Amino acid sequence: MKTPICHVLLLLFPLLSLSFYVAEPSPFNITVDSPPSTPFNITRGSSLSASPNQISYWLSPSGIFAFGFYSLCHETSRYKVGIWITDTGRTPVWSAKSNSYEPIYDGSSLRLNHKGVFMLQRLGFKEEPLFSNEMERASYALMHDNDNFIIYNPNSLVIWQSFDYPTNTILSGQTLKTGKKLVFNYEVVMQENGNLVMYNEYDLYRWQS
Ligand SMILES: *[C@@H]1O[C@H](CO)[C@@H](O)[C@H](O)[C@H]1NC(C)=O
Ligand SMILES: *[C@@H]1O[C@H](CO)[C@@H](O)[C@H](O)[C@H]1NC(C)=O
Questions:
Q1: d(CA 77, CA 157)
Q2: pLDDT tens for residues 49-58?
Q3: Closest ligand to 27 CA?
Q4: Which of 37, 40, 41 to mutate to test the pocket of ligand 2 (most atoms within 8 A of CB)?
Q5: 29 C-alpha vs ligand 1 centroid, how far in Å?
Q6: Which residue's CA is the closest to the ligand 1 atom numbered 8?
Q7: 12-49 pLDDT per residue, tens
Q8: 87 DSSP assignment
Q9: Residue 28 CB–ligand 1 contact under 6 Å
Q10: What's the CA-to-centroid distance between 127 and ligand 1, angstroms?
Q11: Tens digits of per-residue pLDDT, 119-173?
Q12: Which domains occur in the chain, in start order?
């Protein structure tokens, strides 16, 4: 298994403690709080949690794509909800746009509740719907092998799909519809030494050999 570049970076930064490195989970150790009732079929009651010791995600059938919490490289206790490629050092390909700018920390969770709404619980905050409020109630969802996360109603009709909301990349098969934007994830962080540093998750991951 390759060492994700984050680990290397963490070791290079003397300010960061080695315990971070030790606590970083193996990228292939899946944990789900309430697993889907059949493999890959995310049904009501399924849930995930953001935790430093375990990675929590739902896989596509071939295992190429995962949907769940991924940690931001430079700050392992903060997460995004999104999709990443599992076999290339966890390259994020899509991230959920949230209504709130509050960060997602350890102990936050995501579940498809019994009413059919994906709810994000940020630690210390009220639970809120992850996707748009107007969405029809979900019966189940699937992470597909083409990187599309699709939510279905009880009649198996598509009510929401990540392909309609491109963020980090456009993959083959995906189109950029008129009026839709491609959103990149930049973060600007004020360091303790007064340095203002802009991070692009993609630049970090691109170092991966
Ligand atoms: C997966 O995580 C669990 C819980 O942290 C741990 O006990 C187990 O050894 C891990 N397995 C692998 C293959 O990393
Ligand atoms: C997933 O589960 C739902 C609810 O149990 C079911 O209606 C649906 O047919 C399942 N879909 C797949 C692809 O397994």
A1: 36
A2: 998 777 789 9
A3: 1
A4: 41
A5: 6
A6: 29
A7: 433 333 333 334 445 556 788 887 777 889 999 999 99
A8: T
A9: no
A10: 29
A11: 999 988 899 999 876 778 999 999 999 999 999 999 999 999 998 887 655 555 5
A12: 42-163 (2.90.10), 176-209 (no CATH)
C-alpha 137 – ligand 1 centre gap (Å): 34
Which has the closest alpha carbon to 117: 67, 42, 180, 63?
42
Q: Ligand 2 pocket: which of 37, 40, 43 to mutate (most atoms <8 Å of CB)?
A: 43
Q: How many whole angstroms separate alpha carbon 39 and alpha carbon 143? A: 11
Ligand 2, atom 11, residue with closest C-alpha: 41
Residues 6+ apart with CB under 8 A from 128: 99, 100, 119, 120, 122
